[in-house]
Automatic annotation (TrEMBL):
<dbReference type="Pfam" id="PF05899">
    <property type="entry name" value="Cupin_3"/>
</dbReference>
<dbReference type="InterPro" id="IPR008579">
    <property type="entry name" value="UGlyAH_Cupin_dom"/>
</dbReference>
<feature type="domain" description="(S)-ureidoglycine aminohydrolase cupin">
    <location>
        <begin position="38"/>
        <end position="110"/>
    </location>
</feature>
<protein>
    <submittedName>
        <fullName>Cupin</fullName>
    </submittedName>
</protein>
<dbReference type="InterPro" id="IPR014710">
    <property type="entry name" value="RmlC-like_jellyroll"/>
</dbReference>
<dbReference type="InterPro" id="IPR011051">
    <property type="entry name" value="RmlC_Cupin_sf"/>
</dbReference>
Amino acid sequence: MKQFIKIDAAGTKVEHSAPEPERIIHGNPQFRTWNQEEAEGGLYAGIWEATPGKWRVVYDEWEFCHILSGRSIITEEGGEEHSLGEGDSFVLRPGFRGTWEVLETTRKEYVIRL
């Protein structure tokens, strides 16, 4: 087993998905995910990309994100709106509820811990 994993979409199988239809507020957002690490105990890392649209999100997991490209707005339910772009990093904690709106196709690196 490798002990070093470079996070890079090239050569990694892409998974296609989308938000559940009942979560979509507007648009037709589509997701592409290049999951590059899946470790025992519920740890995941890779690259995720979404096309424009807005949907409701609910986080049961902890996630670190680093925006590689694009522009998005994450709004916490009953709280603050966060404009995000290239170079921004943030953590979403379990229990986060709100919306994710992609203004320009957004690509991020992520690390998720269940």
